[in-house]
Amino acid sequence: MTDGPIILFDAQCVLCSANARIILRYDRQHRFRLAAMRGATGAALFREHGIDPTDPDTILVIDGDRVWRDSEAVIAIYVGLGWPWRVAGALRPVPNWLRDRVYRWIARNRYRLFGQRQTCWLPAPEDARWVLP
Question: What is the pLDDT of residues 23-67, one digit of tens each?
């Protein structure tokens, strides 16, 4: 079940949950697995990479020894979804410091801008096999 990249995300964030639904819907090759940061797998992986799972400031995509974070993680996800999502790769020439600055501002303000769920988002039963506990 852990074959392929694992996306660690905030399942209480409305924006993050919406992105999780997009990934599950459009990942036709089922490359990605999802793990909520408050779940056992997600929390352990966040801690392994030096991030407090109760107060994360980033999204992580872990693929074996490779780890992407911040804007590079978002780009890696959408490029991995294929057409038309892969056009997000056009953002790679934008300097990391600029992309990450925008990403971090959104991440810090995600609850205020997009809202916070009272409970963690759960996948539809048919998608549960792609979400790690």
Answer: 999 998 899 999 999 899 999 999 999 888 887 778 999 999 999
Place of tokens 């999802």: 34
Instruction: Provide CB contacts within 8 A for 112, sequence distance 6+.
Output: none
Q: Please, how many CA atoms are within 13 Å of residue 72, restricted to the half-sphere of its CB?
A: 11
Give me the helices (H) in 38-116, please.
40-48, 70-80, 96-108, 110-114
Determine contact, residues 80/5, Cβ cutoff 8 Å.
Answer: yes
Q: What is the pTM of this model?
A: 0.89
Residue 102's nearest CA partner among 128, 66, 122, 72 is: 72
| Tokens matching residue 29 | 């090759």
Take residue 116 and report the two structure tokens written for it: 């916070």
Cα angle 53, 44, 102 (rounded to 5 degrees) comes to 40
